[in-house]
Amino acid sequence: MTETTHQQPAGAPRTGDGDRSPEYRLAQNALQGLRQDLFHDPFAYRPMEPRPTTGPLLRRLPTRIRTAAERLPHAVVGAIALLTLLIGAVSGSEPGGDARALLTGLLCALPVVATLTRPVGAFWLSIAVSPVTALLNGGGSDWPWMPGAFVSHLTVLVVVALRTRPRTAVWMWVVTAAYAILSDIFIGGSYYYTNGGPMLVTSAFALLVVCLWHVRHTAQQEVTAQQTVTAQERSRRTLLEERTTIARELHDVVAHHMSVVAIQAEAAPYRVENPPEELERAFATIRENAVAALTELRRILGVVRAEDYEAPDAPQPTLADLDALLVNVRDAGPAVEKVVTGAVRELPPGVELSAYRIVQEALSNSLRHAPGASARVEIGYVLGGLGVRVVNGPMPGPSLVKPSPGAGHGITGMRERVAMLNGEMTAGPTEDGGYEVAVFLPVTAVNEGDA
Description:
The protein is α/β, with parallel strands linked by helices.
């Protein structure tokens, strides 16, 4: 088998689409858009969808009226179809007096009704009906649109443009202009008046308004979608930041205690005179495990530290520091009451820190959302855990300080702290208009024999 290769001369023109001129590609894309919008299956069944009733005004209406409002666009189109029937019937050569007048009215109303199910087909039907209605009323003075056909075609243009997209509206106007020009050149000589100009100007303004509505509606949808994505990303970022903060705090607490365990295990054999060899090996094993656990803990949790993160100089707050926190809140104005129930005891550092942060955030939310409202902090030491309840009353009125709503990050942070400790939390408004945050943090009991 012999292969023959033909080389194209250097000066020979190429015929590929990639080598076409920009004007050619622009015209080709325009014709493809025309074919797709107006010629591709124009009489496909596309029923008009009901009007959404999720708007702020329609949501307040009774159910029966709201259901009827869903078909309001259909009713408007039907009313306009009836109007075009009447205009077409009374604007013929013998208004309302013969079958031709009734047929003219029906032909004018038919494209308007067709917009409910076959919008693009209704446009072509309106183009076809216009010369028929003009020929049926040969004595008329309007060309190429009789009064009924004028209203019908203008309505079809607007409804179809609303149901499709701006590019389709542009192509419909171009086809309408071509029809008006050709009908004036070839047929309109015997008529006293041509209304092609008024049709083109009126329809251009109407379609421009529809296109602007499309652009605004699309922009609103994009903004809404972007706001939803932004809110989700903001919530996710807040969640990750809160988890990072919690991980840092727990890392500091656990690393401190593991370091103490390692040091005490290393020093313990020197505190006993002539310790048994088994005891020395046990303490050595404890120290090795503590150091290994500390190394692994730092390797896993240390990655959450940012490069610019600096460990706080002061120790992490506990429930013993609540009084100083409440004093700062009272200095801001509102009255805060603290109630402690149960036998006060020392709790794990993670529980103490989380309880303090939850009370701190709950009081901060009270100052932001209900400035001047009194608050009550309840700390309950119960068997198996710690109960925390922070409740504030309604904002007193009138007040010179206005509430400053936040983004809900405080509640998200509190829930993350509670979830990290396998606790439970409820938050919501109270009956008197205030707000309540209730948390239970479980604490595993430690037997004296296990210490």
